[in-house]
Amino acid sequence: MRISQLSATSGVPIPTIKYYLREGLLPSGEQTSATRAEYGEAHVRRLRLIRALLEVGRLPIASIGRVLAAVDDEKLSMHRVLGTAHYAIAPAVAPHADDEDWRRARAEADRLISDLGWRIEPWAPTRNELAQAVHTLSSLGMPATGEALQPYAKAAAALVEHEIDTIPLDGPRETAVEALVVGTVVHGRVLDVLRRLAHESASARVFEIGDTEQDRSA
Amino acid sequence: MRISQLSATSGVPIPTIKYYLREGLLPSGEQTSATRAEYGEAHVRRLRLIRALLEVGRLPIASIGRVLAAVDDEKLSMHRVLGTAHYAIAPAVAPHADDEDWRRARAEADRLISDLGWRIEPWAPTRNELAQAVHTLSSLGMPATGEALQPYAKAAAALVEHEIDTIPLDGPRETAVEALVVGTVVHGRVLDVLRRLAHESASARVFEIGDTEQDRSA
Question: Model-level pTM?
Answer without folding.
Answer: 0.84
